[in-house]
Fold:
Amino acid sequence: MQKLRPVFPKPPRCFMVDKDMSEINALNAVFPESDVLLCWYHVLQAVVRWLMKSDSGVCGPHSSNTRREILDYFKKMKACAMKTDFDRVAKEFLKDFSHCQEVCKYFQRYWEPISHRWADYGRCYNHGNSETNNLIERDQSLVVIFRSVKKV
Structure:
């Protein structure tokens, strides 16, 4: 990251990454004036994957409605334009799922403390109507494929 810093005459206003905390910490250290946001697609993917694990307490076909309701709450929290709204919806979530202790612990440990990185209240500018880094990941994979083909 230190080698990347001189490339930018002015620090980027933000970076959008997956939830890799070592990457986030490195970006914060080298670009403290830039926001580091989480890709919404990868947030949902991580939550869905965790909910499907037995540790979640809501895996299996009998809990499919519960998992859908949990994801619906995450979407409601994501859509909060103000921190106070997020806090209110998060409190409702914890109350409504108080019977799912592992889900509540998971949310409080991994998502609530960094809500400013994935909820709308932390996204203070338009990103071309994109909430994900999927387009850039796709473009990067095309570059890798092109380079591989070019070598052949």
